[in-house]
Amino acid sequence: MDQQDDKPSGQGRKPITARELAQLIGVSQSAVSRAFTPGASVSPKMRERILTFARELDYQPNAIASMLSKRRTNIVGIVVSDMENPFYPALIERLSRELQKIGLQSLMFNVTKGSNIEDQLMALRQYNVDAVVIVSATILSAATLDWATENRTAVLVNRTIPDSKLTSVCCHNSEGASAIADHFYELGHKRVAYVAGLAHTSTNMERQGAFITRIAELGLTLAANLDGTEYSYESGYNSALAIAAKGSVDAIFFANDILAAGGLDALRDEAGLRVPEDIAVAGFDDIAMASWPHYSLTTFRQPINQIVAATVKIIRTGSAQPGRPAKTHLISGELKVRKSTIGTALT
Amino acid sequence: MDQQDDKPSGQGRKPITARELAQLIGVSQSAVSRAFTPGASVSPKMRERILTFARELDYQPNAIASMLSKRRTNIVGIVVSDMENPFYPALIERLSRELQKIGLQSLMFNVTKGSNIEDQLMALRQYNVDAVVIVSATILSAATLDWATENRTAVLVNRTIPDSKLTSVCCHNSEGASAIADHFYELGHKRVAYVAGLAHTSTNMERQGAFITRIAELGLTLAANLDGTEYSYESGYNSALAIAAKGSVDAIFFANDILAAGGLDALRDEAGLRVPEDIAVAGFDDIAMASWPHYSLTTFRQPINQIVAATVKIIRTGSAQPGRPAKTHLISGELKVRKSTIGTALT
DNA sequence: CGTATGCTTGCATCCGGATGCAATGTAGAT
DNA sequence: ATCTACATTGCATCCGGATGCAAGCATACG
After folding, report:
1. Structural domain boundaries enclosing B186
2. Strand partners, A154
3. Rounded distance, CA A274 to CA A278, Å?
4. Which of B343, B347, B287, B234 is nearest to A266 (CA)?
5. d(CA A207, CA A310)
6. Which positions in chain A touch B97 (Cβ < 8 Å)?
7. Where is the HTH lacI-type domain (chains A, B) (predicted)?
8. Same structural domain for residues A42 and A79?
9. In this structure, what is the dihedral angle of CA atoms A106, A110, A111, A116, given to the nearest 10 degrees?
10. Which of A80, A61, A71, A65 is nearest to A128 (CA)?
C-alpha cells in the first residue's frame, strides 16, 4: 500500500537537463547548449569536455525544448491516405528514409473518407511542422490545403491541384500515357480501351486525357473508356470483365498497376483470354508486383527515387515557401515493356 | 531586387499566441490556457468567450509549448522496417488511424540494414515520445531496445524478443502453424514442406517450430524444410522451384503470404503443377492479395484490427511502462481456407 | 447580516534550451 | 609595454503554455 516512494504510473527517473549537466561540470548552461550546436562559438576543448561528460552521464538535449526556442521542429508532416496501393508505402518509406538522412523525422497524418479531414489537418498546424508533404489522392479542396499549409513549405507529390498555389512533384503522367498509346500503336493494335482510377484525381485525369488525345492522333479507336471509382484490384478485375464481355478490344491501358493486375487476372483466369495474344494490357507506376513473373506487366515506371529526391530538395532548399511562385516539377518516367504486351503468352 | 520588406526565406506572419489573445480579450493568459484544457477550472461563459475570440482570430495553442510544459508529447514513435510486405503498411495505417482517434500522432522511424540503428533510435529518445511501438523484424538486440525505450511505454508488435523486458502483441503463431498442419492432415497429405522467412525472427521460429512439432504429432513427413533469408516473393518463388524439383511433396506451408504468392506462381507457371491437385499451398497473414481470385490462398489470418486494438489499449492504459511486468498478448487468428488447398484447380 | 464553502481568475513561475549582449581573456600589432 | 581585435564564456531573457497558490467573488447557511 505504501507506494509513496515512487510514482505509480511514472516514467522512471527523468533525464538529466543541460543545466544539471552544466552544474556538474562547472560551466554555464549556454556552454552545454553551444557544445551541441554545430558551428556555435565554443572552444574545441570546452566542447570536447562537455561532450565527454554528456556521454558519460547519458545527457541528450531535449528536442522539444529545442523546437520551442528555435522555432523549428525538424519534423515533416506527411499527409497520406491510399496505403492500399503499394506504390504509396514504397514512396513514403523512401521519403521518410531520405528525410532522416538530413535530420528530419516524419509525422504521419492519415486522412480517410470516414474522418473529418479538417480536424486531422488542424493537428498539422498545431505541431508546427517545418514542411508538409501531401501524397494523398483524397479530395482536399484548394482552400483546405492552403489553410492547413499556411505559412509553411508544402509539397504535393503525385498530384496537382488546379487552383492551389502549392508546389508539386509529379511523374510526367501525360508523357507516360502517350508512351503507352504509342506502344499499343507500334504493336499494331487498333481498338484500345482505358480503365480509369479514382475519377477526379489529377493522376487519372492527366493519364486519361493524354491517352485519349494520343490515341486519336494515331488514328486508333477508343473502344471503351470506363469510369472508375477507385484504384483497386477489384475495380480492375470488374472493368476487365466488362470489356471482355463487349469483345473486340485489342489492348487495355489501366490507370495504374493495381487495376491492371486485377484486369490481367480477370482476363486470363475468368474470361479465358490469352495475354498478350488475345488482348494486351498495360499499367502505370511499376510497383514491385508488376515485375513478378506471373504478371510481367508492361507499365510506365514512376521513378520513386527521383520523385523523392526532388521532394527532399524542395524541402531542403525551402523553395516551396509562401510567396515563392508555385511550380510543378515533372519527373520523367520510363516505359517498361514486359510480357503483358509482347512475347509469348503466359500460362 | 528589393525584398527588404519581408524575410526572403521567412515563414510569413507568425501565429497569434495565448498571451496576445488574452490581452486582446482582456483576460489572463492562464484563462486562455484553461479554456483549451478539458476539465480545467473555468466558467462556461469565460470558456465560451475565449473560444469564440480564438476562432475569430484563428488562435490555436502551440503544441510544442504544450509538450514542453506538460512533459507529454501525444506522439507515439513507430519503428518500422519491412514496408515491402503489404502486411506492415496495412498494420501501420490502421494503427496510426486508431491512435489519431485518441489524439495521438505517429512519428515514423524507419530502420534499415544500411543505416545505423542506434543513431535512428537516438532520435526516439530526444523526441520524448509518449510511447514506442516496434513493428520491425530487423535485428535489434534486447539491449539496444531497452536503451531506446528506457523509461517509456513500449510495445513490440508481431514479434517477441526473448531477453527483453518489453511487452508484446502477437498473433498466436504456433496456433496458426498447428492449424495449417491439421488442415494438411485432414486433406490427407503425407509429405509436407516448410519454407522459412527471415530465419532468426520470432515469427518465423514460432511458426516453424509449431508446424514441425504438429507435423510430427500427426505422423506426417517433413519432406523439406527450407531456410530463408527474407520474406519476399522472389524467395518464395525460388524455394518452391527447389521443392518442385525434388518432387514428392504434397503440401507446402510458407512462413507468410508473400512467400506463398511467389511459391504459387512458381509452381503453376514455371513448374507446371496444378494447385491444389498436385500440391497444396498455404501461407500466413491473410494480406489483401491472398483473397484475390488468382491466388485464392489458404492462409492463417492475422486479425489486424484486434492486434491494433490491443496495442492501442496498452498504450492508452499505460500498461507497458517500466516496472510493470512484461506480458505477451497472444491474439487468436483464424484459418481461411481457400482454393490453394481445396476445390478445383485454378487455371 | 456575517461567515463558511467553493468556484473563478490572475499572478508568478516553471518546462529545457537558444541566443543577444556584455564581460573576460588572449594574441597580435605598434 | 600598450592598445586593438577577436575568440570565449557567462548572464539574462525569451520561446508559448501549464499550473500551484492565493486573492476575489458569489452562493449558501446559520
Report:
1. 173-302
2. A132
3. 5
4. B347
5. 21
6. 110, 112, 115
7. 16-70
8. no
9. -100
10. A71
User: Which amino acid is present at B3?
Assistant: Q
Cα B214 to Cα A152, B199, B209: the distances in Å are 58, 20, 9
Q: What is the CATH number of the domain that holds A315?
A: 3.40.50.2300
**Residue pLDDT, tens place only, A307-344:** 999 999 999 998 877 777 788 999 999 999 999 999 75
Q: Tell me if A64 and B127 make a contact (CB, 8 A cut-off).
A: yes
Alpha carbon distance, N-terminus to C-terminus of chain B: 70
Query: Among B123, B152, B292, whose Cβ lies nearest the Cβ of A265?
Result: B292
What is the number of helices (H) and of strands (E) in chain B? 12, 12
Domain count, chain A: 3
User: Among partner residues A83, A86, A269, which is closest to B346 by beta-carbon distance?
Assistant: A269
Does residue A233 sit in the same domain as residue A289?
yes
A68 CB below 7 A from strand C atoms: yes
Q: How far is CA B291 from CA A81, A86, A317, in A?
A: 22, 16, 45
Give the separation between CA A84 and CA A230, rounded to whole angstroms.
Answer: 11
Question: What is the tens place of the pLDDT at every residue in B8-51?
Answer: 344 456 899 999 999 999 999 999 999 999 989 999 999 999 99
More confident residue, B195 or A9: B195
